[in-house]
Amino acid sequence: MPDFLKDKKRYYTPVEYVFDKIGGLYKMPVLWRVKDKSWRFSELKKSINRASDRMLSKTLKELVLDGFIQKEIIPEIPVKTLYSITEKGKRSISIISSLRDYGFELMKEDGIDES
């Protein structure tokens, strides 16, 4: 496949493109969490405690812009913001699940305790 440009960025393979969309430190963990229910920012922050507010916010914005999750603002006092998975995001879960399973296999082969 020839290389291609998207949003002024050059990609050389479809795999590279996918990892740009759902890869990195926090995108897959966020998608994995929102696959079953909606989460508030503070809940995600507590669950992924190594992420700074800035990085988690950036990750959520990118996932929303790319259509993997949706942001719902509920007008109550205080305002409630919920993040949930979209159909596009649901399609990524099988890929993430396969990578996760393969990660556990590699860890076991390398003598790493998964607990």
Description:
With 115 residues, this protein is α+β, with helices and mostly antiparallel strands. The strands form two sheets. It has a three-stranded antiparallel β-sheet. It is globular and about 50 Å long. The termini are far apart. The model has no long low-confidence stretch (mean pLDDT 94).
List the helices and strands and how they pair.
Blueprint: E1 4-6, E2 9-11, H1 14-22, H2 27-34, E3 39-40, H3 41-47, H4 53-65, E4 69-74, E5 80-85, H5 87-109
Antiparallel strand pairs: 1-2, 3-5, 4-5
Descriptors:
three-stranded antiparallel β-sheet, globular, two-stranded antiparallel sheet, 115 residues, 52% helix, single chain, alpha+beta, 5 helices
Summary of the model, kept short:
This protein has 115 residues and is of the alpha+beta class.
Helix content: 40-55%
Broad shape: globular
The SS-based structural class is: alpha+beta
Global mean pLDDT: 94
Percent in strands: 15-25%
Distance between the termini: 40 Å
Give the low-confidence spans: none
Number of distinct helices = 5
Major sheet size, sense and barrel closure: 3 strands, antiparallel
Cα radius of gyration in angstroms? 16 Å
Written as H for each helix and E for each strand, in order along the chain, the element string is EEHHEHHEEH
Number of strands: 5
Q: Provide the spatial order of strands within the biggest beta sheet.
A: 3-5-4
